[in-house]
Design a protein that fits this description.
Blueprint (H helix, E strand, L loop, with lengths): L3 E8 L3 H11 L5 E5 L13 H18 L5 E4 L6 H12 L4 E6 L5 H10 L6 E5 L2 H5 L1 H5 L7 E6 L1 H8 L10 H16 L3 E3 L9 H14 L4 E5 L2 H9 L21 H6 L8 E3 L2 E3 L1 H12 L1
Parallel strand pairs: 1-2, 1-8, 2-3, 3-4, 4-5, 5-6, 6-7
Antiparallel strand pairs: 9-10
Length: 296
């Protein structure tokens, strides 16, 4: 049976709280992924995003100071984004604390070339493919001269839907999700690399986590990785009973939540990029897609 690697996502936010969470997870076997990209933005007031990211970089330094000896992965901003130029400072200051870099919105081998042209250290890379162009150029990306530095190739479901202007978002309990993902898995593994699955935003739906991991065990010949958005998801990933069969009720094809722009605003988490309603994250991508639908 293929192995599974769990990355626990933690936004660079509230250093004391984040450091406490990191210490709680220490020794659990999961890998810490600190995020200064997707979770650090204000989709309702984009003019505030640059200040939020600047603050997040300072708070990430505090988190590092509060967790001596802990290594983590870091999700930076896209290499073509202005914020990447500021992110480089962290890569230069904390090279011995960073075990890998997650590069979002990778669309070609040129993104890898741009990263290594700017960053001298040969960091291990986890690529996130989350646009149509990224999928179309995947062969070219994986033929990069830097292929030996790649650990995993992740699919980013929510940005994929935003890029393609598809709403409602097709989630992991749907066969249509796996129609998108299976060719990506096959291509990634044809280069002897490992696939990483998209995070899942419904924090209370453990049945879909079970279903997704069983699908990944079936589709992947190599070890694979998953992203966790909450410590409860991490615990569930780690405690799964792999041979338990799912009932038809567990393999549910849940309808999308009936969300609205006003609900997103009402339940938006202070200083964060998302809303939280009944253990279900409404992602910033969903907000932007709803906004497009209203104005389209």
């Amino acid at each position: 049976m293929t192995g599974i690697k769990v990355f626990q996502c933690i936004p660079a936010y509230k250093p004391a709280v984040s450091a406490r969470q990191i210490r709680y997870l220490s020794g659990s076997g999961c890998h810490i992924l600190l995020d200064i990209e997707d979770s650090i933005q204000d989709v309702q007031h984009p003019e505030l995003t640059a200040a939020l990211k600047r603050k997040a970089r300072h708070e990430l330094e505090e988190i590092i100071g509060l967790t001596p000896g802990t290594k983590f992965s870091l999700r930076i901003n896209a290499v073509w984004h202005d914020e990447f130029q500021q992110d480089k400072y962290l890569l230069e200051k904390f090279p011995d604390r960073i075990e890998s870099i997650f590069i979002p919105k990778v669309e070609s081998a040129k993104d890898l070339e741009a990263f290594y042209a700017a960053v001298a250290r040969r960091y291990r890379l986890n690529l996130i493919i989350e646009t149509q162009k990224g999928i179309e150029n995947l062969d070219e990306t994986l033929r990069s001269t830097f292929r030996s530095n790649i650990d995993h190739v992740f699919f980013g479901n929510y940005d994929y839907h935003l890029d393609n202007n598809i709403y409602p978002i097709v989630e992991q309990y749907s066969p249509d999700y796996w129609k998108i993902v299976e060719p990506i898995i096959n291509k990634v593994e044809s280069y002897r690399l490992k696939f990483g699955n998209s995070p899942y935003a419904d924090l209370g739906d453990q049945a879909t986590l079970d279903f997704s991991v069983k699908k990944l065990h079936k589709l992947c010949h190599n070890d694979f990785a998953v992203m966790s958005l909450h410590k409860a998801q991490t615990r569930h990933f780690q405690n799964m009973i792999w041979n338990r069969r799912l009932s038809p009720a567990e393999m549910k094809n849940n309808p999308p939540g009936d969300y609205s722009l006003s609900i997103f605003t009402r339940y938006k988490q202070k200083g964060r990029s998302f809303s939280l309603v009944d253990k279900k994250i409404i992602t910033p991508q969903e907000y932007l897609l709803m906004l497009k639908g209203r104005n389209g």
